[in-house]
């Protein structure tokens, strides 16, 4: 660790930031927005090396704090650190009586000195009290309150301009459409909307504008897939950067090929591979803030029957900006050379995650 002693503090913080947090693997089934970052084992080990690294690591160790019944007393004892470093608080509620709300309101919130975001995670049996929710939303240091469920109906008529709901589904499971509409009308934002038919938005919610919407997920029921609404919808939702079309039951894509994967479909037919795979999910992205905001394919979920390497080669050439790839290999019985697999995966220059829902068996890999 001696070379670190020669680093200026600014450079030392850059190095620590690189290893500070556990990498997040994007998952097609996890659209939920979060501010929380889990400290990595490397950060914990680095903080024990010497006194200078310990001081430098403090801002990262206490940048994202998880609060629950089990650790609230310990956190209160470290209130001096809480006043300087947190960027986000993740507060998890458990069913049953608890003193956690009072501890947070009267002993933690008064110590906060810098703007931060708060995440509130609760179940239908462990909602926060109205008093606590209003205290969080009204605190001047707190800029954003991310919630996993709608607030209690007694809070729907208040100022919800700081509140963002992580995800809503329509038809509305676990919440009424009226409650969701009331919250949106009173300033609440929505990060992700999941729906089963775009044309029923007016009927389900009575609105077509969702403040702060970043991701749209549509379960396919219509054949053919119609996307004529996307330009208008995306123009009225400036923050929208992802759209997922989900066809896990293979009702739509097997019958009608969407235009944004038509070139890939043509290539597989030309190579005689059309029966080797099925498309289950397609993700589109646009780069917010760039001069060109065209939609491109950034995510795919495929079910592979055979010819894995050949299919991956065509995927890599057809979708150069692909970030998330999910592979269902349950019916693929082929045997593949490990060097061929490594070579074809190296062609994905933008890939962040490749998640097989069922891995190849050892007998299917030759070395």
Fold and architecture overview:
The longest helix has 11 residues, at 9-19. This protein has helices spanning 9-19, 41-47, 51-61, 72-77, 79-82, 100-108, 130-138, 177-185, 201-205, 230-236, 262-270, 308-318, 338-345, and strands at 64-67, 88-92, 116-121, 142-147, 163-170, 189-195, 215-219, 242-246, 277-285, 296-304, 324-328, 336-337, 353-356, 365-366. Helix 1 (9-19) crosses helix 3 and helix 11 runs antiparallel to helix 12. The chain is built from 13 helices and 14 strands. The chain has a twelve-stranded mixed beta sheet with strand order 1-2-3-4-5-6-7-8-9-10-11-13. A two-stranded parallel sheet has the order 12-14. The chain is globular and about 65 Å long. It starts with 8 loop residues before the first helix and ends with a strand. By secondary structure, the chain is of the alpha/beta class. It is 29% helix and 21% strand. Strand 7, helix 10 (230-236) and strand 8 form a beta-alpha-beta unit.
